[in-house]
Amino acid sequence: MNSKVNEWIEAHQDELVNDIMDLCSIDSVKGEALEGKPFGEGPYNSLHAAMELTKKYGFETKNYDNYVAAADFDTSLPRSLDMLAHTDVVPAGEGWTVTEPFKPVIKDGRIYGRGTSDDKGPLLCALYAMRALKETGVELKKGVRLIMGADEECGSSDIEKYYEVEDEAEMTFSPDAEFPLINIEKGHFNGTLFKDFKEDSNLPRVTYMKAGVAANAVPQKAVLRFEGLDFDKCADAISEVSSKCEVEITKTADDELTVVGTGAHASTPELGKNAGLAAIELIKALPLYKSEQVEMISKVTSLFPYGVTDGSGIGIKMCDEESHDLTNTLDLFEITPTHIEFTFDSRTPIMATKENCSDVAEKTIRESGFDFATDGMIPPHVVPGDSEFVQTLLKSYENVTGLKGECLAIGGGTYVHELKNGVAFGAVLPDIDTRMHGADEFFDIDNIIIATKVYAEAIINLCA
Fold first, then answer.
1. Which of 194, 198, 261, 393 is most buried per CB count within 10 Å?
2. Same structural domain for residues 273 and 405?
């Protein structure tokens, strides 16, 4: 480790923390596209604030039409290492207690605020690593570039724009996840099962159900509406489903029930209580007329049993040593008197193929009587764990933290999913839930300083 660099980082802690708080005070949730502001006012302001910092600290900065900006350590050096971060954030959401989302505060050694750990804080850790090397006179032989995007949270169209005009660097890491290092991101497979039929007016019947806001999130709420159903005679069935599924079911209108479960990301569906599937269990338990609609709805839980997230119901349960288990979750639900439709999300291990995954799921679903549609499979992202690049990053992490460096596989996707030699590297230390995307998101100040030191060490080991 370079003691001079680490001392500089420690001496500039307050300045780094203040820069993070200033950047996190900008509401950079994606908005309506405006002229010259492709992702709206907030992302534009945040990207430009980050650019002002890179210029202030002496780095030549280039703006790519307000989609992305890039700051170079030294433009005379051959491009070799890219650090890929973003300045946009997810919506604030509800439930904040420590502070308001865009009024960052320091409490108990943590900075609280939207974007502190995802990804404005880590972006500035990477910037300060570059600044520490520059201001302590460390000479590099290879170039380092900090790439700052403005649309990572809503599809990464920003980085697509960047790579239309720029080549990939020899090596890329994204400080937008957790340490030690993520070298495998699972593949992705979504599918929709649906059925149309003639309306059956026999009572009692279900006339409406809606659950889910996105295919990549376990639904937290489901709303059902009925016709001709005597709710007074359904109390036992409602109570039984509520208890079995560990959800809350309440009457929210004369003919309406609302199911509230626990949301989760589709890459970790086991952490959720799926309100949509609980609503299907409720439909099965209620004394409804056995129409074709109800019969088809009842088949859903054979394909996607409540609480089962391994894909076994549609025949695609699988696991390999490197990337571990397939996950599967039904996340979008729609029911009307003439149409039912459900969309699932699967995160697939390296061993998954069209033949053993997509084709099997389609066959199973069609044999149950549903129609089926899919856009196909997105392949996994894998960078060999024994590569010199990965091993150098892990060594840098170990040198600074004293913790064991090892490769991880995740179900989620990051900025580097399409890059040949790209990995996610920090910035959050292991076993710390910083509540990214949730209320009271935070970033520990100790973690901030450690991450900055790790990035400085990595740059030296890769580029000096």
1. 393
2. no
